[in-house]
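Field: COMPLEX_INPUT
Field: COMPONENT_COUNT = two
Field: RESIDUE_TOTAL = 267
Field: MODE = joint
Values follow.
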Amino acid sequence: MQDAFFYLFSALTLICGFLVVANPISRNPVTSALFLVLTIISLAGLFVLLRAFFLAAVQILIYAGAVMVLFLFVIMLLNLKDEEQRKIKRTSVILGGIGGGALACLLVGTLAANFSPGQPNLLMVEGSTMALGKILFTEYLLPFEIVSVLLLVAMVGVVLLSKKELK
Amino acid sequence: MTGLTHYLVVSALLFSLGLLGILLRRNLLLIYMSLELMLNAANLALVAFSRFNQQLNGQVMVFFIITVAAAEVAVGLALIVALFRKRQTVHVEDLNTMKL
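Field: COMPLEX_OUTPUT
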């Protein structure tokens, strides 16, 4: 049963990931952004299969709910009409395909060479909110506080960069 | 029985798809979205390793990666909007000079 869900979610992830990158039907950036949202949601499903429940919820709330909304907002702000008429050159498609395919063959080949069959579920830790919260506030307290400062700095930087005249 | 290798293969394929998107597309926003795809592939690999090594450190790292990625997307999109205001284009081949 879990295997069926794994294959379903991973197939959904890879198909939607491919449609983000190379959509044969329409070259609208909005379509790619929506397929990226679907990819993120299928990844959250894979996280649930890996027992990382808090991370699955965080992924949907923050990544699909805030980051992708920001992306779509910016895509619709810049009125990209002439993107769809520009042709993609044949050589760039071939070279890009060779590059991506080479990396995929390298990684998957290495993984398949060291293939180990799955073990039955032993005593594995669950990524519940309480367990993650405990470790976040004791062992990883310093990165937690630094990340909050980082978010403040990013917010100030975005407000500054969006001013009308950059003096 | 799905083991660690299955999840890592999915992560590797997703990473290569993101790389393909960066190499192939000429729109800045689509290149940025392929970059986010690569980040998500790394997140999946980290969570898979954390699960199969019975630790929580991988999940904490993914928590921080999601946060930093959100901040990075905000700053990057502000840069793209500022660039668009100056040069009226987001096509990478038109942005071939450092002069504003």
